[in-house]
Write a structure and sequence with these properties.
The protein is α/β, with parallel strands linked by helices. It folds into two domains: 164 residues, D-Maltodextrin-Binding Protein, domain 2 (3-Layer(aba) Sandwich); 95 residues, 3-Layer(aba) Sandwich (D-Maltodextrin-Binding Protein, domain 2). Helix content is 45%, strand content 18%. Strands 2-1-3-10-4-11 form a six-stranded mixed beta sheet, with helices on both faces. Strands 7-6-8-5-9 form a five-stranded mixed beta sheet, sandwiched between helices. The longest helix is centred in the first third of the chain and has 22 residues. The termini are far apart.
């Protein structure tokens, strides 16, 4: 009887301590791990969002921790192993949570079992980018050029989305091209704008400035509809390639053991920030459509995207290069 009372008292104290810790949250800076380099589209979104969240959450501080490499595997593994105390979050994309599970036989993380979904930030799609001086001015012209010069054209790839887009293009157009892997989008964009790389299926969050500045041209976006910020760029369906679509989503996670109360609190602030007009404008400028959700809605969305990419991987035999 005494032991039972002591155990009950201990559990009450632990619950009280946990509640107190959550009520004081955050009492130190929150690290947001990003699986891509500074200047990448995901990095730009992370910095835009965390700045807004500090305005909606007095006393909160965020530190963006870029950990690029291995198609996001390094960063995802680190985030999965982090303490579930709310002080490590993971802002990532379909690369780590939808595509990698089908490209790699073994991963140091499980995209569903190791993470707690906080919320969807937004959706976008890659664009087929080329130097402003490139002769090809459409997807059809790129395909024709690739047929004339089998295996001679080179395409940059910086993550599984750009890799999948290139492989999908190869199959849709029936062509052979050379894939050149890069560690980060900024260098791939520089080489594409200079002509050192012929083409790049890259995101407009990082490449949009070069497009607007006349250094790059966007031939089409791989989405069902035209993207915000770039209404003049046609979809691949409009360009004659209706099957050439690669959905990209960006969302926020926490390690699985993170208390639901903390997950909910971060989500509330995230949703409020994503609805700020200045944040909507900033994301739209990078061709990202904000899509605020609840944690439960995002978890369902992630599960559905995993299934969607499983079908894409099977139908188009997507493989890591």
């Amino acid at each position: 009887m005494l032991a039972a009372r002591l155990m009950a008292a201990s559990l009450c104290l632990m619950a009280s301590a946990g509640a107190q810790a959550q009520s004081d949250y955050p009492s130190k800076p929150i690290t947001v791990i990003v699986p891509f380099a500074a200047g990448s589209g995901t990095d730009v979104l992370a910095r835009t969002l965390t700045v807004a969240m500090t305005q909606d959450w007095p006393g909160a501080q965020f530190v963006v921790d870029n950990r690029p490499g291995a198609n996001g595997i390094i960063a995802a593994g680190a985030a999965a192993r982090a303490a579930g105390d709310g002080y490590t979050l993971f802002l990532t994309t379909n690369t780590t949570h939808s595509v990698n599970p089908y490209l790699y036989k073994s991963l140091p993380y499980d995209p569903q079992a190791d993470f707690a979904a906080i919320g969807l930030a937004g959706e976008t799609a890659p664009a087929l980018l080329a130097a402003a001086s490139a002769k090809a001015g459409s997807v059809a012209e790129v395909a024709a050029l690739a047929r004339q010069r089998p295996g001679a054209l080179n395409f940059a790839a910086v993550n599984t989305s750009s890799l999948a887009a290139t492989q999908l293009f190869k199959q849709q157009a029936g062509v052979k091209v050379e894939i050149v892997n890069y560690k980060a989008a900024p260098q791939a964009l520089i080489d594409t704008s200079s002509g050192a790389i012929d083409f790049f299926f890259g995101d407009l969050a990082s490449g949009g400035t070069l497009v607007r500045g006349g250094k790059l041209k966007a031939l089409a976006v791989l989405s069902e509809r035209r993207l915000p910020g770039f209404p003049e760029v046609p979809t691949t369906a409009e360009a004659g390639f209706p099957g050439l679509q690669i959905p990209i989503w960006i969302g926020l996670f926490a390690p699985k053991a993170t208390p639901p109360a903390i997950v909910d609190r971060v989500n509330q602030v995230m949703v409020a920030s994503l609805r700020r007009p200045e944040v909507v404008r900033a994301l739209n400028a990078g061709a990202v459509e904000p899509r605020p959700t609840s944690p439960a809605e995002f978890a369902t969305y992630v599960a559905a995207q995993l299934q969607r990419w499983g079908k894409l991987a099977k139908d188009f035999n997507l493989q890591a290069e």
